[in-house]
């Protein structure tokens, strides 16, 4: 199974929903909390080209935010990425 990384903040409801979706699938993930670090936030923006959280990676594939993750799950693409 591919490694999953989530850039998030602890107070973001979409971040919580993303974690719940992955937890429900039994997927473990690494968390990078960018909420208290301008450097971590800047690194996330540089890597993703986006300035909102969550930002989710499966391996080196940038899935996007929660809406993107949810759509990938519904289409079956998320399972393909995870098993990639």
Structural class by secondary-structure content: alpha+beta
Q: Which fold does the CATH topology refer to?
A: Glutaredoxin
With strands numbered from the N-terminus, the spatial order across the biggest sheet is 2-1-3-4
**Named CATH architecture:** 3-Layer(aba) Sandwich
Overall radius of gyration: 12 Å
Elements, N to C (H/E): EHEHEEHH
Strand content: 15-25%
- At the first level of CATH, the class is Alpha Beta
Which term fits the overall shape?
Answer: globular
Note the total helix count.
4
**Rounded mean pLDDT score:** 96
Helix fraction by DSSP (H/I, runs of at least 4): 40-55%
Main beta-sheet annotation: 4 strands, mixed
First-last Cα distance: 7 Å
Q: How many domain modules?
A: 1
- Low-pLDDT segments, ≥5 res: none
How many strands appear in the DSSP assignment?
A: 4
CATH superfamily membership: Glutaredoxin
């Amino acid at each position: 199974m591919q490694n999953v990384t989530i850039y998030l903040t602890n107070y973001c409801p979409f971040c919580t929903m993303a974690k719940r979706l992955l937890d429900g699938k039994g997927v473990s993930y690494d968390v990078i909390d960018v909420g208290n670090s301008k450097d971590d936030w800047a690194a996330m923006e540089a890597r993703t080209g986006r300035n909102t959280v969550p930002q989710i990676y499966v391996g080196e594939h940038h899935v996007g935010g929660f809406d993107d993750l949810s759509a990938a799950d519904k289409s079956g693409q998320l399972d393909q990425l995870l098993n990639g």
